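Thread title: Can someone regenerate the structure for this chain?

I was given the following input by a collaborator and told the matching structure tokens would be attached. They weren't. Posting the sequence so someone can regenerate them.
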Amino acid sequence: MQHTVGSLRFIGEQRIPLKAIYADTVVGGLSGIDYDARTETWILESDDRSEYSPARFYTATLNYDQHAFTSVTLTGVHFFKQSNGKNYPDAKLFEKEGGEVADIESIRFDPLDDSIWYASEGSRKLGLNPFIRQAKRDGSYLSTLPTPAMLNVSPNEETGSRNNLSFEGLSFSPDGKYLWLGMETAIYQDGPVATVDKGAVSRITRFDRKGKVFEQYAYPLDPIQVAAAPGRFSDNGLSEVLAVNEHQLLVLERSGVQDATGVFKFYIRLYEMDIHGATDIKDIASLKKAKYVPVQKRLVLNLNEAGLPKIDNIEGIAWGHKLPNGHDTIVLVSDDNFDQTQVTQLLVFEVLPK
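Best answer:
Regenerated them for you:
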């Protein structure tokens, strides 16, 4: 389905309590969300590396209209399965038994069949490449999408994906024939990560359903929004993508900035990027000295200026159901990192057309 995005109107918020227990699993780390209009089902995946509970996703119902967002209810949980049929291990079990440690950052319903797709950042520290996989709706393995070697990890050399900064955004094209993949930040050969003085560049790639790369574009990331306290951490990167139409994507950018006590404050912006006029960079091995035209981007919403009492670590975005007036809705979800200083929040917005 094609969409158009002018601006967003806030409808409401719901939260899930810290480390809530559902079906003997710990709820949290929700970094991906999607909606299937055919079954009116929502899915929410956790980026838990099987440390609290095995790598998993939840089904849910979200009740909202143009006036209010009244409830979110979890309705099921499924564990992602490796190709051998087993759950993904945590790091300790991986050392003993092998397999792969999953760091799942995005999930999407397949618009053409009854499967789901998900993306994992892998682990440079463990020598595990990021991946995109297809699964049945119960989480069982179906296939792995081939991805470019330039995006693999290299534990001993500064090439490819950085640790915990790789496959972050995933979205189907409106016709379901293609998948868009967004890197959280620059791969090593494209330059440094963002600082408070300068942004970075992320590669956004369009694949067909068998993994053929059709095109790839340079997305200019903002600088980090404010400086961290001395000796503390801050970053800025892409946290999700969502296709609008054949040439535009919504892109979530998230800055996390620690204060003197180590508590994070988050700065979230939603942009609309357009590939028209941008250079296809799929055959450019390094962007450091290359000449290219990045995609253009337009600020749709700065969440820190939306009047909400708290903005947390927003990592997921999805199209929701249409309102009676025919307008689209968008739902955002935050990853609380299972941290008592953070919250799991779901935010619903009405999409006002241009």
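The first strand starts at residue 7 and ends at 16.
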